[in-house]
């Protein structure tokens, strides 16, 4: 599932393609991927201009000049693809296509995800329960630690809780824990002051590095895109079961915690 670095990569690249561009048409091939009927969806989008693209946690918000918003959540398996010409179309099932004069934005794999047409008020309500962004200007170490103050369970479970901090999921929770030298299955009340400092620093470092490399998405956003997916070969522990730790050579372990996969190095990460 796309996390903060993937959605931030999409935001940056899409802003270059569609910010200031007018929507000339829409096609919906799966009605369950949107929240209104296709006619209403078209009426609320076609002819409007995309003012800017906002990233909020695991969501993208397309701000339109008619006051509406398009709220995107890719969930598991969702992808985006920008095609400049008709022949430049992904060989994948497209649930929604939004056309512009310069090309088409294809929304792929939205069988679990969605693209909803909302008002500004509806969008704010939909996102109200999300925690702050990892790079919110107010997110200093004190606020970071305070977000976990009432949590009594395991570290990874809290890290992927979108009401605590928005945008962190399975992959980067494990990557952050490794960078901080902490087992992801550690109980939160047992973390020391030093470990909280390391974890806060790891969040900033890991997410920034992953976004700079384009995240781990499997498909380029557009033809010639060499950024998207660049973090794939740089994961430290995630999805590397049995492979040697990049720091010490110990085989990476995979376990399950609250129905989630957990990857860690049993040598580099403290059990507590």
From TrEMBL:
Stretches assigned to the Formamidopyrimidine-DNA glycosylase catalytic domain: 2-136
Catalytic activities: 2'-deoxyribonucleotide-(2'-deoxyribose 5'-phosphate)-2'-deoxyribonucleotide-DNA = a 3'-end 2'-deoxyribonucleotide-(2,3-dehydro-2,3-deoxyribose 5'-phosphate)-DNA + a 5'-end 5'-phospho-2'-deoxyribonucleoside-DNA + H(+); Hydrolysis of DNA containing ring-opened 7-methylguanine residues, releasing 2,6-diamino-4-hydroxy-5-(N-methyl)formamidopyrimidine
SMART domains in UniProt: Fapy_DNA_glyco (SM00898), H2TH (SM01232)
EC number(s) stated in the UniProt entry for this protein: 3.2.2.23, 4.2.99.18
Cofactors named for this entry: Zn(2+)
The keyword Zinc-finger is annotated on this UniProt entry: yes
SUPFAM superfamilies: Glucocorticoid receptor-like (DNA-binding domain), N-terminal domain of MutM-like DNA repair proteins, S13-like H2TH domain
UniProtKB keywords: DNA damage, DNA repair, DNA-binding, Glycosidase, Hydrolase, Lyase, Metal-binding, Multifunctional enzyme, Zinc, Zinc-finger
A GO term, aspect molecular function: double-stranded DNA binding
Residue ranges occupied by any FPG-type domain in the UniProt entry: 236-270
GO biological process: base-excision repair
Family indicated by similarity: Belongs to the FPG family.
Assembly and interaction partners: Monomer.
Protein name per UniProt: Formamidopyrimidine-DNA glycosylase
Organism: Paenibacillus sambharensis
